[in-house]
Amino acid sequence: MTHLIKLAGILPLLCATLVLRGQNETDALRYSLTEPFGTARASGMAGAFGALGGDFTSLSINPAGIGVYRRSEMALTFGISGFNTNTDYKNEQNTQSEFQFHIPQIGMVGVSESTGNWKYVNYGIGYNKLQNFNQSYVISGKVNDISMTRLFADQAFGTNFDELYNSFPYGAGLAWETYLIDPIDTNTTDQFVAAIPYGDVQQRMDVRQSGHMGETVFTVGGNYNDNLFVGATLGLPVVRFNRRTTYRESEIDPSLPLDNFTWSENLSTSGSGVNIKLGAIYRVNNLLRLHGAWHSPSSISLTDTWTTAINSEFKDGSTYSSSTDGVYQYRLKTPGRVFLGAAFIVGKAGLISADYEMINYGNARLRQSNTFLDDYDFRTENNTIEALYRNANNVRIGTEWRVGEVFRVRGGYAFQQNPYAKGATNYTSNIMTYSGGVGYRGDHLFVDLGYQYRSSSAEQYLFDPANTSPANLDMVKGEVIFGVGLRY
Prior knowledge:
mainly beta
């Protein structure tokens, strides 16, 4: 297991990892997707609130909804989420579940009665959650055709052993330090053999994700003659994302010196940005409202901080470890969005609302940081984003009906189209959300309870898709949302 020649020292330089690489198309998609979060009332209607207004969630959908308010309001929403992920890989199944308490919304709206045709000029400030990153899953299975050590050897091919850490500090460099690759012979310094040359190993990948994306909103809008409502929102998105990935190979051929090894990465991403939202709602008559809204791309400055490590253990009892850290700053421009929709108001009995959202995920772009001294232009990654993702059409439908004078019942459905272009190697299904809820609407106090059920499926590769088959992931999330508010 000893190297013919041992490379000494660690030269931690930023470089692409062999297995997981930050600042790529996956990051661009992660921070471009949103969920129908918000108040318990809006969540119970699957977020179909673009043409309705009068609810704090609308400030992040169609800011014209603030013009519908006739009284000032404070609102706070709590959520309990349950996550369940089933995986199937090489005929082995695993299930992981977890729960989380969080705050999807908090905010207040101030109402100013005006004179003339402008009936009200209102303002709002608060926070709406846009995405929840919590997820855990395990992928495991027995394979006989590939080992990650072979990928390390392929990555190192053509590079002298004393330059491996310069060139591949998060991949082949670590593999060299932990004896997962060796030169083919004493006369060759740039060709390598893998510690597991033929595969036949038990693979296991553990992934633990946490974090969220939300935005602080500052909204102003007005009511023109009770027919036209307009509004604008300044959004300040915030990103917090953490992921720990552990990949292990064991049950290795007894004739080989290596007993097992583990590759791991801890990644933490944080950032903030800015966007603008503009919208209008037009009251055609007492039965029908139409709406339209435009969301500018969000410009988000992000910082990735990570630690990558390999630990190896040999059958003679010797163990080796090597790790290195990285930090990188960059910017992301998310795609803009267009919303259209309508709401049908059935007197005081109830309502039906529908929203259509169009977003081209292929318009996301990674860019250089304004402060980090780096001349990398992300051309390759942006070309991949443009080719991999497509224009998606998302639909939300919700309804609310009065029961007596003060009680309400609600239901909703949301369809979020698969963002991947036809023929893409990656696969994610359309996301379906089913929702329901009840509420109490008093003169000053309102209390709402909602529930959402989201389901989707995806394929997950343990590493390079050209060298392995994917695992199937089935993901389900159930969420109970409770909200309380005060009108004054």
